[in-house]
Amino acid sequence: FEAAKRHVLPPPYVVKPNANGSSVGVLIVPKGANSPPQQLATDAWPHSDEVLVETYIAGRELTVTVMGERALCVTEIVVNRDFYNYEAKYLEGGSTHICPAKIEPQFAKIVMNQALIAHQVLGCNGITRSDFRWDEKNNVLRLLEINTQPGMTVTSLVPEQAASCKIAFDDLVEWMAEHANTAIKVKT
């Protein structure tokens, strides 16, 4: 791995396995780190041979579910660990979801609109979840990624946001199945 031999970006930066989800294997190289993550060069690295390296973006973590042509709401994720890794997502006490986020309504509309635009521009279908970082001090919103296969567990954000919008879990799943069936028919 080139990323294990030298810093490929100035720290801080994020290293992600190319083929994992739920932040499994994600590493954050902090500002001032003297060397890159050495675990990438060992046999102990159980993940893919390809990694994504991205500049670390600080700020409040916000996320929006888009359901078809509708952005549901904004959730703020408050992490009780180093970052929103697998443990923070799935272990009790790892994070808190504030749904809807305690932000100004006008700003919430902007965040939801950005998620909807990203969903549309990328040609996404069905359900997506867009993750953002908001630098509140400088009032800068940055899109981190769009998750085209977001989680649907009890602790997942999509069912939580749907419930916040009065969409029952069964109705959400039924909508997803119907929409997937429609998308398949259109493409064949």
UniProtKB/TrEMBL annotation:
Residues 12-178 form the ATP-grasp domain. Transmembrane segments: none annotated. One of its GO terms (molecular function) is metal ion binding. GO terms for cellular component: cytoplasm. Its EC number is 6.3.2.4. Its main location: cytoplasm. It is found in: Cytoplasm. This is D-alanine--D-alanine ligase. It comes from hydrothermal vent metagenome. The lineage of its organism: unclassified sequences, metagenomes, ecological metagenomes.
